[in-house]
Specification:
The protein is of the alpha/beta class and 393 residues long. 41% of the residues lie in helices and 26% in strands. The protein folds into 2 domains: 220 residues, FAD/NAD(P)-binding domain (3-Layer(bba) Sandwich); 132 residues, D-Amino Acid Oxidase, Chain A, domain 2, CATH 3.30.9.
Length: 393
């Protein structure tokens, strides 16, 4: 009997970072893996993700660093700008590098997903354009009925299908009972061409009351924009659509922001536009069904840690299932107990961090600018470095 037969079969729902990392980790642990993804094809996104602390460690354990390191964008100069795009002050790349350290990667989300996909594509069955319609489970297996009419019998089902997880709704009930709306909207998009108002190797940041906009020029194919703002009615903004909603919120700004907004008018997808929510559940598993990544614990982009936590969670799940081989219930319980403190920490940091992305008042904006200036000072830089280290370890 092979190692795969001894370990079992797993169905992973979702082929994003969390789902692909889970598929890779469990396949290496001997599981037969089937991945289904609702989208008709692989998606790519040009916005940035950061891997440091446990996220970087997990990428190393998963064997991803040789492929990820050449795609590392590294550190870049950040420039705080006025509403018309004129420079206020700048933070050199060396300052950020000194604060974060060398065990860190800055990547385009699409690059991270590509490396994961390339690592697992020949090891697992991956079906696009497919989602789960119904799930039943017994003592020995879980059976998923899929949208193409087929069924999959598995020993374990992993719901890694994002903040609006269908697996979570089927297993734990309506989304409203698990999703906490933080009253903000966020958009992150790759840009087709480099904004002419943003110098090469620079990310500009406009910070104003209840909103922030950032445009990054990291070279051809590596330009992106990020927007976040306080919204009295996020659902209405989402219904309006990204280009109209973001133009209404940021259309008075000049420089690279106006260029980025113009590009959104012809955006063909690949970006992210959603309300800012956290997923809070009493438990992440039910029998042989387990949630992972944003489906279980969405910490929001305000935490800056979603991708890292997805990798870490997937790697820890593989370890728990190997340690408790043959006892899925014990494995999932041990995995959740160990990971929950980190998730609570990240969610709390994200809630506190809202004021950094959408300062509630002009006074908060001024304080943020003062902090921005202070970070460049050698003495303050050391304090920031130690604070970042404590937050990520």
């Amino acid at each position: 009997m092979s190692a795969v037969e001894k370990t079992g079969r797993v169905l992973v729902v979702g082929a994003g970072i969390a789902g692909l990392a889970t598929a890779l980790r469990l396949r290496r642990a001997g599981w037969e893996v089937v991945v289904i993804e609702r989208a008709p094809a692989r998606r790519s996104g040009g916005y940035l993700v950061n891997l440091h602390g446990p996220g970087y460690d997990a990428a190393e354990r998963l064997g991803l660093l040789p492929a990820l390191t050449p795609r590392d964008i590294g550190f870049f100069t950040s420039v705080l700008v006025h509403a018309d795009g004129r420079e206020k002050l700048r933070l050199p790349a060396a300052v950020a590098e000194a604060a974060v350290g060398v065990r860190a990667l800055t990547l385009l989300r699409g690059d991270l997903e590509s490396v994961l996909y390339e690592s697992v594509a020949e090891l697992a069955e991956i079906r696009f354009g497919t989602t789960v319609e119904a799930v039943t489970q017994g003592a020995d297996e879980v059976v998923a009925t899929l949208s193409d009419g087929s069924t999959v019998h598995a020993d374990l089902l992993v719901g890694a299908d994002g903040v609006h997880s269908r697996v979570r709704r089927l297993t734990f009930g309506p989304e409203a009972g698990h999703v906490v709306d933080l009253g903000h909207v966020v958009g992150a998009f790759p840009l087709d061409h480099v904004p002419e108002h943003v110098p090469d190797g620079v990310g500009t940041v406009f910070l104003g009351p209840r909103r922030t906009a950032s445009v990054m020029n990291l070279g051809p194919g590596r330009a992106s924009a990020f927007f976040a703002y306080r919204s009295p009615d996020p659902a209405a903004d989402l219904a309006l659509g990204p280009a109209p909603a973001l133009t209404r919120a940021f259309g008075d700004l000049g420089g690279g922001v106006s260029d980025a907004l113009a590009q959104l008018e012809t955006d063909q997808g690949g970006g992210y536009f959603d309300s800012v929510t956290q997923v809070v559940t009493d438990r992440w598993s039910e029998g042989r069904i387990v949630l992972l990544g944003d489906a279980a614990w969405c910490v929001t982009v305000f935490a800056g840690y979603g991708a890292a936590l997805a990798l870490d969670g997937a790697d820890r799940l593989g370890t728990a299932l190997t340690t408790h081989r043959g006892d899925i219930t014990a494995a999932l319980a041990a995995w959740e107990t160990a990971l929950r403190p980190e998730v609570r920490k990240r969610q709390a940091l994200a809630r506190r961090g809202i004021s950094r992305f959408a300062p509630p008042t002009r006074a908060h904006v001024v304080l943020s600018e003062l902090m921005f200036r202070a970070i460049a000072l050698p003495g303050i830089r050391g304090l920031v470095q130690r604070a970042i280290y404590r937050a990520n370890n």
